[in-house]
Amino acid sequence: MTALLEVDDLSVAYGAIEAVRSVSFVVEEGQIVCLIGANGAGKTTTLRTISGLLRPRAGDIRFDGKSIAKEPAHVILSRGVAHSPEGRRVFARMSVEENLLLGAYTRKDEAGVRTDMNRVYELFPVLGERKQQKAGLFSGGEQQMLAIGRAMMSKPRLLMLDEPSMGLSPIMTQLIFDTIKELQQQGTTILLVEQNALAALALSDRGYVVDLGQTTLEGPGHDLLADERVRAAYLGQ
Amino acid sequence: MTTLLQQIANGLVLGATIGLIALGYTMVYGIIQLINFAHGEVFMVGAFGGLAVYRWVLPESVRGDWYISLPAMLVGGVVVAVVIAVLMERFAYRPLRNAPRLAPLITALGVSVALQEAIRLWFPNADAAQPFPRVFIDAQVRLGDVSIPASGLLLIVVSVILAVLLQTYISRSRMGRAMRATSQDRDTARLMGVNPDRVIVLTFVLGATLAGIAGVLYGSFITNVDNSIGFQNGIFAFTAAVLGGIGSLRGAVIGAFIIGLIKSLGGQYMPGGTQYDYVWIFVVLILVLVFRPQGLFGEAERVRA
């Protein structure tokens, strides 16, 4: 196993406020890795820094062995890191098809883009049936499908998903999690941030607990599920 | 009746000029939420760029052939307008991208004054109005009882064609999609691999191209230019963009034609005549903003669902 993403003692600040103090973790190629933790622990900030929307104050981020900590977002995307942001952030005034085409913005192979678009429609038939409709007209769960599909359209080696189950019904959540598993089986490495710690850990090869801007615990998903501290803090047991 | 139709024709020519400028205002606002008050000056330097080509580049033997001189002047006007617009984005606005919104706005006013003064000081004799050659066919086109100068008709035709081309480019092309994405949600557009700097420069280039073309065609229609034409027409264009709904391309063009018509008809039929034609423009603007603050085609501010 080789490390695809290494985050090393990362620190990020908004002005004087330190949102991430010391986050370190490794994502191996082919794995699903999840970050769990309370609201405001710094999980979303970590993802936004990896994808280049924020600048780290200290520490390093290496993708495929090379540092991407100082690269702009569009370069990081073209290296193979896609990010489906918290709150879905679909382009509400554009059609489903245009959203997917934007996901494939950096790609030049038109035929491949078509194929992958059809793949997204197969995975999420509701998107294919209404591909000319504006994304803003879709339900939260459907927009989440679109956000994931859009992130897949760049053919990423690493797909980062921020709270994909937020606000979704249990059935929809199950569908999204099944899809994540399927994407892994097709060879995509996945970094998942979730409040739904139980479902996320059950799915993940490895999990990290982020608390007050620091990674505090780590281990294989099922070990963390069994860990008393995790159960007490995040699973309400 | 003839007077009415004649004034409508005059209003359409003015509207066509304003529309080409208003598109630049509305596009830049759509992408970076900046009212680029110096955009009227881009139109003005475009006109002077065209004039410079006529005076110092075109040999006298071809000046009379409009099919040579007009394209050459248009190229000159567009090049000057684009260079100025790109420089102003790079050195005046980009350093202020994350500053409070008032800072770039005041900077835009400063750039506007600087460009007016630069032309007055450095363009030969431009401290007074300069004659602009009527390069296009110097004839009146008669439609029934109405007559329009051929150069005015050209302005209307070019304006409508360019507006349609721009709309098509932005709604169909890959870069157009990137522009719309950047305007809706810049961070998420960056996550798609869109480089916002490139999109912003492209927006200024497109706006300046239209303004440069407008400057040369307007000069050739009105036959004299000075360093204040950008301020005057820029205010009209800004008003048109707000009236139509700032950020909307269609709104900018339709708003421009409405303003052109109000000015010409107001000057003809309302008390005070042409001395007060400005008043009616702003009366209509205020009424629209009272009853429809987002403008005719603008989208109302909405909380994200």
TrEMBL record, chain A:
<comment type="similarity">
    <text>Belongs to the ABC transporter superfamily.</text>
</comment>
<dbReference type="InterPro" id="IPR003439">
    <property type="entry name" value="ABC_transporter-like_ATP-bd"/>
</dbReference>
<dbReference type="InterPro" id="IPR027417">
    <property type="entry name" value="P-loop_NTPase"/>
</dbReference>
<keyword id="KW-0547">Nucleotide-binding</keyword>
<dbReference type="GO" id="GO:0005524">
    <property type="term" value="F:ATP binding"/>
</dbReference>
<dbReference type="InterPro" id="IPR030660">
    <property type="entry name" value="ABC_branched_ATPase_LivF/BraG"/>
</dbReference>
<dbReference type="InterPro" id="IPR017871">
    <property type="entry name" value="ABC_transporter-like_CS"/>
</dbReference>
<dbReference type="InterPro" id="IPR003593">
    <property type="entry name" value="AAA+_ATPase"/>
</dbReference>
<keyword id="KW-0029">Amino-acid transport</keyword>
<dbReference type="GO" id="GO:0015658">
    <property type="term" value="F:branched-chain amino acid transmembrane transporter activity"/>
</dbReference>
<keyword id="KW-0067">ATP-binding</keyword>
<dbReference type="Pfam" id="PF00005">
    <property type="entry name" value="ABC_tran"/>
</dbReference>
<dbReference type="GO" id="GO:0015807">
    <property type="term" value="P:L-amino acid transport"/>
</dbReference>
<keyword id="KW-0813">Transport</keyword>
<feature type="domain" description="ABC transporter">
    <location>
        <begin position="5"/>
        <end position="237"/>
    </location>
</feature>
<dbReference type="InterPro" id="IPR052156">
    <property type="entry name" value="BCAA_Transport_ATP-bd_LivF"/>
</dbReference>
<dbReference type="GO" id="GO:0016887">
    <property type="term" value="F:ATP hydrolysis activity"/>
</dbReference>
<protein>
    <submittedName>
        <fullName>Branched-chain amino acid transport system ATP-binding protein</fullName>
    </submittedName>
</protein>
Automatic annotation (TrEMBL), chain B:
<dbReference type="InterPro" id="IPR037294">
    <property type="entry name" value="ABC_BtuC-like"/>
</dbReference>
<keyword id="KW-0812">Transmembrane</keyword>
<dbReference type="GO" id="GO:1903806">
    <property type="term" value="P:L-isoleucine import across plasma membrane"/>
</dbReference>
<feature type="transmembrane region" description="Helical">
    <location>
        <begin position="148"/>
        <end position="170"/>
    </location>
</feature>
<feature type="transmembrane region" description="Helical">
    <location>
        <begin position="199"/>
        <end position="223"/>
    </location>
</feature>
<feature type="transmembrane region" description="Helical">
    <location>
        <begin position="235"/>
        <end position="262"/>
    </location>
</feature>
<dbReference type="GO" id="GO:0005886">
    <property type="term" value="C:plasma membrane"/>
</dbReference>
<feature type="transmembrane region" description="Helical">
    <location>
        <begin position="70"/>
        <end position="90"/>
    </location>
</feature>
<keyword id="KW-1003">Cell membrane</keyword>
<dbReference type="GO" id="GO:0015808">
    <property type="term" value="P:L-alanine transport"/>
</dbReference>
<dbReference type="Pfam" id="PF02653">
    <property type="entry name" value="BPD_transp_2"/>
</dbReference>
<feature type="transmembrane region" description="Helical">
    <location>
        <begin position="42"/>
        <end position="58"/>
    </location>
</feature>
<protein>
    <submittedName>
        <fullName>Branched-chain amino acid transport system permease protein</fullName>
    </submittedName>
</protein>
<dbReference type="InterPro" id="IPR001851">
    <property type="entry name" value="ABC_transp_permease"/>
</dbReference>
<dbReference type="GO" id="GO:0015190">
    <property type="term" value="F:L-leucine transmembrane transporter activity"/>
</dbReference>
<keyword id="KW-0813">Transport</keyword>
<dbReference type="GO" id="GO:0005304">
    <property type="term" value="F:L-valine transmembrane transporter activity"/>
</dbReference>
<keyword id="KW-0472">Membrane</keyword>
<keyword id="KW-0997">Cell inner membrane</keyword>
<feature type="transmembrane region" description="Helical">
    <location>
        <begin position="274"/>
        <end position="291"/>
    </location>
</feature>
<dbReference type="GO" id="GO:0015188">
    <property type="term" value="F:L-isoleucine transmembrane transporter activity"/>
</dbReference>
<comment type="similarity">
    <text>Belongs to the binding-protein-dependent transport system permease family. LivHM subfamily.</text>
</comment>
